[in-house]
Amino acid sequence: MDKICCPGGVHQNILSAMDKWMEGIRKVQARRREEVINATNRQRNGGPRHQEDKDVIVLAASIAELILHTRQSRTAFWCCFHISTKDIPFSVTKEDSEFEDYL
Predict the structure, then answer these.
(1) What's the whole-model pTM score?
(2) Contact 55/38 with Cβ under 8 angstroms?
């Protein structure tokens, strides 16, 4: 990631957003794994259904957190893209030059 972005290195906020995003993914995976394990154990033992609701609520909360982190990381990727491409010259094609009169 450091090589892709700007020559001075990636800004700390971008790295932080990526770390939070990966942490959110791992959290959702862990919650889903716990839900499946608990559901399997309850089916074998005939346990109460109330616990299943708790698992779903915890999973939903971790998904909501992942949504937030995904939005933040998408914005960070967008910023990194613009920082890394700001020095690339923009070439104007013939089709683009026709529209310059309207700008």
Answers:
(1) 0.69
(2) yes
- pLDDT given at position 99: 47
Return the half-sphere exposure (C-beta side, CA atoms, 13 A cut-off) of residue 72.
18
Could you tell me the mean pLDDT of each successive run of 10 residues in the chain, 103 residues long?
59 89 96 89 71 83 96 90 73 54 47
DSSP state letter for 29: H
CA distance 101 to 96: 10
Q: What are the angstrom distances between the C-alpha of 81 and each of 74, 77, 87?
A: 10, 6, 11
Check the CA dihedral 60-33-72-77 and report its sign.
negative
Distance CA 81, CA 21 (A): 17
DSSP alpha helix (H) spans, 86-99:
94-99
